[in-house]
Structures are given as structure tokens and as C-alpha cells.
DNA sequence: GTGACGCTTGGAATCGATTACATCGAGACG
DNA sequence: CGTCTCGATGTAATCGATTCCAAGCGTCAC
């Protein structure tokens, strides 16, 4: 592969001049510029990003560590992150943690070793020492979707409380009284928050959320299935189940179907995180939709702000309920319930 | 961030010795090794991968350029690629081409600039000059799923011909005679091959595949919808539609549903590429399943072979038909039809 | 006792860029 | 006409590692 020296030799100038041409430095004569450009062209020269990074201490690369690539929510997030990053001149290296803290740390370490300019994380657990150290050491960092409390890192996420209230209102209106939740890991903020929001919304209707109706899942399909089977084995099974993410909802659907039961006639089902497939399932699944694309873009903008020395802002967007048929035939005419109680965008500087 | 010099100073040795300890070079005294390790520990030193790459001309990184991250098939492929790569000591940088040749080239250029050790591509089009140059220039490269004919690069893919024959047999047995296909872009091998396999299989039953029954899609959901609408507008619409990928099948399902029609009663539907969601759609979709995970792993092994100087082998695995309910109630008892005509694995050295 | 050998170790070159500093020449101005 | 300024250019240091080469030193055999 041709190096800058080869170009310099071919153009009859020094490497400094070649570098100046390549970096659009003003003081280069038109003649020298033309000769360099010609040499670059004829040699098919491309600057070595590795060498450049070593010298400038910038890789123009963002690291993104997500909890689970197979989850369409995170796939869409990854896609929007890459898009916005590309628009701002950055590349993205994605690490898939598969909901495993050890894998998460592996990827964080790897990305740090590669001297990425900044890190976007949706933490799998509550506090990897590695990540805390990195944050303290000043690595530009932004949490997306999930976060770690007590760390001074901007958070970009969706607030689902209003939408959960709408969901509970919807379930209540359809006559469901024994409602259960398939929760995510308590170590994740989304895991615990969704349970709390659900419990609070139920309380407003005087409905309890007994412990046997809180199933412990791990955001993966298998756990949704397992928990749902547990619910169905109960002497008094719930008449509605809320899955804290889409994969666990899929597992729940599996479990219900395996028993020869039907949604929503035998049991209602709703999910956090809406995905295109929910329109086509049997029945279409009522879900809480996050503004995923906007979340990804906002997270990148915040991170790049931080990297380039501007103040980075935390961002909270609103999620909304999308009613379909999995909780019963809806009496409402509106299929999407807006959540006027929460402003569409809240910004706070961190 | 601490550098090797800091470690050397702290341990009272030269940088050469530190480097030897870090790289497990044999001739280092136990005493020196202990002091270096202690210094590494207390400084929290981590070698700078950028500097190391510059010097050794190896990044231990693989590039993966896929056609569309939102397609669950490619997501699963990406996941298995990353897994196998990690097991072999490599990281993966994923580029999403979104079925756009310009984006594909952007990512290839970017990855080449970063001096990745090897490139895994599922080409969006038939022949980007950039990719041809890279292949000729000796960049270790492997095509996965799709390939570019006439380039001397190993190909790892699934052969779907036998499964397509099984699908046609299935459709024929259920009485479907006017069968149509939503094809992928002719510029991709998978796009054209699937049409040819389908046409050939139909011919064996004396069934035609008229041009009006070949809809031109682009592997994205919207095109599946558009093409299906066109089919339904025909004076004599098909009674079965085969979508050449899962996203277009989703679009087709949309279109059928939007007309108030039902699958399979009004029109049968089958797809290439099976995904977990197809079990839960209304109705469950009959699909041709590729051994996606094995494909990804085999591709990485082939690429790493090439990188590390061993001969790389092309690999062809068999796809299989998974019968569900979207083509009509199946008379067979077996839900998975094995394809005994094709051996499970074919290997050929390239 | 001494030369050879082998194990450790350090010095310094190197990878391919960027960039501070020095130099050179030409034009401007008094 | 001398000097000052400024634009264009080159030299060389530098980023953080790896690795070749030479040197130091202890041990062993003769």
C-alpha cells in the first residue's frame, strides 16, 4: 500500500506538503497542490487512518455497546446511531453484550483499547467498575435507553410512565383486573422502572400487583416463555400480562400458544417496545412505542457535543401507547393514544 | 492515559522489556517480569491498540459489510460472525449498506482505510470497482450469502434450490397453479438465483412463470407491498406468492391485509429466510430457512484462514423448507421437509 | 584463566502520519 | 537599495508500540 512518502516522492515534494494538501492547509501553492493530487490519484493513495489516529489522538470512531442485537429495538437504535454518526463524520463500532455483564466489559475494554473518541452504552447491569472508571477518567460517554444511577453521564432515553398509565387505563377499561408483569433484570434501570411505573399506574385504579404476578425475566424470549408458564400454572392465573420488552412478549405468546390458549380471549398481552412485526402477529400486539430513531440520533449528538468540547445535554423523549388487539377488542376509536401529560421533549443540561 | 514509557519508568526497565513481558517473549527474568506486571497493575496500563497496529500492520479486526441491518436474517448473521470472530481473537466492525451501492462503497473504503485485516461482504450490487480492486490488491476477503461472479474470492452461502423445489411441490400439492414471485434486485446473486430456482422448479410441474408474475422488489418491505398490490390489481391475480426475502414477505402481508383479503384463503404466501417472528404472524408463514449461524461462523473461519495464510475454502450449506400455514392447511404430517437430494455440506477449495 | 555461549537487557530504528520550527525567496515599503 | 513581512516549503520531532542488534554478564568447559 502506498504511503505518504511514496506520494511525496512521486510529486517531488516533502511529506509535509503532501499532508498539508490532504488536510486543506492554506499555505500550499496551486502548483504543488496539483502535483500532489495527481500523485495521489495515480498511486491510488489513501491515508492510513491508524497512523493518523496515533498522531492526532483521535479516531473519529464511536463505540456503541448494546444489550442485545437480536432485539429489533436495539437493531433500530444501532441503525439510527450509525446514520447520525456518519452524518457527523464518525464511524461506529458496535459491541453486542447479549445481556451479559462479562461480554459488556469485554467490549468496553476492547473499544477503550482502540481509543475510540466516545462511548455510547445501554448498560446491561448496574455498575461495572470498568465503566465507572472510564467515566471518571473522562472518556466521553453517553447512556442510551438504560443508565447507571449516580454516574455523571448524560442519559438519552424515553420516559414510558405516561404510556404505561395509558396502557393500564386501557386494560382496566377492557375489564382486566388480575394483571401481571414480566419484568426485566432489576439491575437495569429499564427493568426496575417499568415495574414501578406499572405498579403506580395500577394503584391509581386500586389494583394490586402481588409478588406472584411479578415474573423475573431477562429481556430474552426464553425467559418470557418461562415466566408466562409460571403465571399459567398459578391457582389463579392473571387475565393480562405486560411484558417489559418485545422479546419476552414473543416468549409469552409462545407459552400461551403451547397451552392451546388464545390471546386475548384467555389472557391479554401487551409489550414495551413496538416493532414492525407486532402488526402481523396473531393477534396484533398492543405495545408501547419508543421514538427509537430520534433516541439514537439524540444520543449521538450529545456524545459528539461532549467529544468536541461542547456541553452535552441529557434528553428524555416520550413513549406512546399503540393499541392493537392483544388486550381485547378496543372500545376506543383512536388506535394511538397521545400522551398530552408529558411534553414531547424535555432537555436538561448535564 | 499511561503509556509503555510510564510503565517502563515505574518498573525501572526499558520499554523493550515491558513490551517483551506483554507479548510473552521468553527471555525476560522472573524478577523483571514481576516488576513490570506490578507497574502495569498499579498504573492501570492498557496497551494502545492503535500504536500496536501501526507497528505490526495488523488490527485484529474484521470488516463486515451487510446489505441491511434491519433484516433479521442479516442481524443474526452479524451476531454469529461477531461471536466466531471473538472466539478467534478478532473484533468486527459492521457496516450497513442499506441495499445502497454508494453506502456499501463508503463502508468498504472506510474499513480499508482503517486497515482491517479482512473483509466479509454480502454485496448489494454486482460489481463495485472499489471492491474488485481491493480483491485484486490482495485484501483478504470472503463473500457471504451473496457474491460477485468472476472474482476469485471464497463464497460462503446456502443453496436453496432443493428447498425451493420442496416449496413448489408443497404449493402444487395444495392446488396452487398461478404462482408469482417477488424477486430481489437482479444485480444480486440471491436476487436472480431465487427466481431461476423457482422458475426451474415450476417447470418440472409444467407450470409457467409469466413476466407479469415476476415482481421486481429490492429486498425491503415497501417493495414487497408495492409488488403485491400490483399482483392483486392484475385481471387474473396469482393464487400464491413467493417473496424472495422476509421483509418483502412482510410487505406482502401488509398489502393483502390492506385489501381486506386473507392469507392463505385468498392468496398463499411463502418467504425465503425464516425468522422467529414467522411463527407468530397471522397466519404463521411457510419459509425457507438458511443455517444462518453456521453460515456466519463458516465465513469467519474462511476469512481468518485466508488472513493467517492458510488456504480458504468456499462453503455451501443446504437451506430447508419449513412448512407452516400460509400456503394452506398442509396435508403432510411432517412440518419440516428434509432435502435429501443435497448433502448437508459441500466444500470446495478456492 | 579464558574464550564461547546463552540469557537478559537496553538503545534505537521503524511503522505513517501531523505539525512546530527554520529557512528561503519575493514583493513591499521607506 | 536594504530590510521587513509573509507565503511556501522542508527538516525533524512526535505519537506508542515492536523488534533488530549489540552489549553486558554469568557460567561452563577446556
UniProtKB/TrEMBL annotation, chains A, B:
<dbReference type="InterPro" id="IPR010982">
    <property type="entry name" value="Lambda_DNA-bd_dom_sf"/>
</dbReference>
<dbReference type="Pfam" id="PF00356">
    <property type="entry name" value="LacI"/>
</dbReference>
<dbReference type="GO" id="GO:0003700">
    <property type="term" value="F:DNA-binding transcription factor activity"/>
</dbReference>
<dbReference type="Pfam" id="PF13377">
    <property type="entry name" value="Peripla_BP_3"/>
</dbReference>
<dbReference type="GO" id="GO:0000976">
    <property type="term" value="F:transcription cis-regulatory region binding"/>
</dbReference>
<keyword id="KW-0238">DNA-binding</keyword>
<dbReference type="InterPro" id="IPR046335">
    <property type="entry name" value="LacI/GalR-like_sensor"/>
</dbReference>
<keyword id="KW-0805">Transcription regulation</keyword>
<dbReference type="InterPro" id="IPR028082">
    <property type="entry name" value="Peripla_BP_I"/>
</dbReference>
<feature type="domain" description="HTH lacI-type">
    <location>
        <begin position="2"/>
        <end position="56"/>
    </location>
</feature>
<dbReference type="InterPro" id="IPR000843">
    <property type="entry name" value="HTH_LacI"/>
</dbReference>
<keyword id="KW-0804">Transcription</keyword>
<protein>
    <submittedName>
        <fullName>LacI family transcriptional regulator</fullName>
    </submittedName>
</protein>
<keyword id="KW-0678">Repressor</keyword>
